[in-house]
Structure formats: C-alpha cells, structure tokens
TrEMBL record:
This is Amidohydrolase family protein. Transmembrane segments: none annotated. Pfam families: Amidohydro_2. Residues 62-287 form the Amidohydrolase-related domain. It comes from the Bacteria. InterPro entries: Amidohydro-rel, Metal_Hydrolase. SUPFAM superfamilies: Metallo-dependent hydrolases (SSF51556).
C-alpha cells in the first residue's frame, strides 16, 4: 500500500478526474487531502494561477474542496483541515469538522506567524487530545530578490519556534515539512539563505537532533524540499532513513513521482520502504 500524506484538491489544474488518474498511475492507494487556509496577503501572488480559492476567506485551498472529494470517494481520501489558529473560532471550526466530516489530520498550517504563538499552542494541544497529527510548513526569511508585494514569504518563525511548539505539546504528533524544515537535515548554514540547499550533508543537523529528542516529531518528505534533502547526499539519506524509519512519511505535495524515484534509488530494505510508504501513516491515522 502507498499513502500520499500530503496533497491538495483542485490545484495545478488537477480536478477530481485527473487526480484519481494520477493516483492510479503512481500506485497511490490513499491521499491525506489537506486544506491551506491563509489570509490573501500572506502568500505569494504567483500561486494564484495554480490554486482554486485565491482571494476567498477560506482560501487559498479551502476545506470545502477537500470535503467534496472525500464525499465522492471516501475510500481514496483522508481529510485534513487547518483553520488559522489566530481566529477565535479556529478550535470550534476544527471540532465541528471532526464531528461532521471525519477530519483526521490538522494540516497544512502555513502562516506568517510564530508556531509557538499561544493561540497555536492551544490549538495544537486540542489536536493532541483528538488524535490529529499536525502538518507544519516552515520557510525562512531571506533575500528573494523581490521587493513587492513582500520581500519574502516566511512561515512559522523557523526551526526554533517549531521546536518550542513540539516541546510544549508532547501529546501532539507533528510532521515537519517544507524548505525551512528540511534544510536542517544538515548542520550547515544554508537554511536561511536558499530554499534548496545543496552539497554534502554536514554533521549536526537539527532535524536529526530533534527526532532523537522528541518522540512526537515525524517527517513529511513531500515537495521539492523533501526530495532535495535526500538527493543532495544519497549516502547520508540512506542512513537517515534507516535510523528514523519509524518516523518518516511518504508524501508529494504535487503530482509527479520524484519521491518514489528517490526512495527506490537508495536500496532500502523492503520493510523500511513499507513503513515509509504507508506503515507510519497508518500508525498515525489508522484506517477506520
């Protein structure tokens, strides 16, 4: 079985029909279908040609689209929803979605706020009580070469803010994701200079340190950032995946097959691949 732990409905031109064809093409049995609720002025306008709900209050990728997919194909999709913790009704909205629609994941949170914000901590602890893993997107602030409408697009406040949240919510499972998380697979200083660091992985990476320290931390390998973290140093990638085989989840955050290609290139044992492809996802979100 293969479970994609990170994808979104109706973006990059993939409607439900193309989506299901794409899953079949790459042998994906189930997908964690995640919303992205974010104020319109907190994300790059370049996204707007690829996202379904640009400019709408519940956009840029609304939960209602996730729910519509799951209603049509409940055997294919596991619902995720991440209302903005800064909104006073966020926990109520999530609670209703759990009870009415069967939401199983809080994700994806991708906001210009510190993830140890007291409102976020309160919501994360609620997720822990409800058994929902939390999928977190992190991006650093660095020179993007652009001045308008913002000089950069940071999310989460960096790895230190995220670590404080993980430590403050020991009963909540977190999935680290995105450039500002995966850059810290290495102990070098590239994490706040480029979204996709290159070169051999240096000792002392924060991701490994946190995985050893916090049993409630898992990793979501989706998107270019996850693939890049393993492609930059395949020898290290193999040892990393072997060491943390019980805490790594396969995901895509797009519709290509690069993550399967990378995993299959590393000569991993079949049982390790099985955990990454579906076993660890099933541990966090068992099939009902």
């Amino acid at each position: 079985m293969i479970i994609d732990c990170h994808n979104h409905p109706d973006w990059y031109g993939y409607d439900i029909s193309r989506y299901l064809d794409n899953m079949k093409q790459y042998r994906i049995d189930k997908t964690w279908l995640l919303s992205w609720e974010c104020p319109d002025d907190e994300y790059n306008p370049a996204y707007k040609k690829n996202i379904p709900d640009a400019g709408l209050p519940d956009g840029p990728i609304s939960f209602r689209r996730c729910a519509a997919y799951a209603e049509q194909y409940p055997d294919k999709f596991i619902l995720g929803y991440a209302p903005d913790p800064r909104r006073p009704d966020a926990i109520d909205k999530l609670d209703h979605a759990i009870r009415l629609y069967g939401v199983r994941v809080y994700g994806e949170i991708k906001l210009r706020m510190m993830y140890d914000n007291p409102d976020a901590i309160r919501l994360f602890r609620f997720c822990g009580k409800k058994g929902l893993p939390v999928t977190v997107h992190i991006d650093y602030e660095f020179d993007s070469g652009s001045a308008y409408p913002r000089p950069n697009w940071w999310y989460g406040g960096g790895i230190d803010s995220f670590e404080r949240a993980v430590r403050a919510c020991p009963d909540t499972t977190f999935l680290g994701h995105a450039p500002g998380f995966w850059a810290h697979i290495s102990g070098d200083d590239q994490y706040d200079k480029t979204a996709y660091p290159n070169g051999k992985v240096a000792p002392g990476g924060k991701v490994g340190e946190m995985l050893r320290k916090y049993p409630n931390l898992y990793c979501d390998i989706s998107a270019g950032s996850g693939a890049n973290a393993f492609k930059r140093d395949p020898e290290f990638a193999r040892s990393f995946l072997l060491e943390f085989q019980d805490r790594i989840l396969y995901g895509r955050d797009y519709f290509d097959n690069v993550h399967q290609e990378v995993l299959e290139s590393l000569d991993l044992p079949a049982d390790v691949l099985g955990k990454i492809y579906s076993g660890n996802a099933l541990k966090l979100v068992p099939l009902s």
